[in-house]
């Protein structure tokens, strides 16, 4: 079976028309869109509604651009599948392999 991803949702290159016309297993919300919504008073309710809509319509939602505790806290309680960003330290493939071997 094929797994489809929609990247950069909210960037202007990918949006509502794409999820209307196709089913994507994963939808990744664009970092700049996330940051823009964080700056607006109505941003959190809008992000929550968007993530809820996507999740309840069988899309796994990934939010990119999480770079601080404030970013992580702002997303608390939303129905996302994963969050991604420089909040977590970078790990090389070699470190992952070593961790798996020693675990």
TrEMBL record:
Superkingdom in the source lineage: Bacteria
Record GO terms (molecular function): cyclic-guanylate-specific phosphodiesterase activity
Domain EAL: 1-103
Name by which UniProt lists this protein: Diguanylate phosphodiesterase
Species in which this protein is naturally found: Klebsiella michiganensis
Lineage: Bacteria, Pseudomonadati, Pseudomonadota, Gammaproteobacteria, Enterobacterales
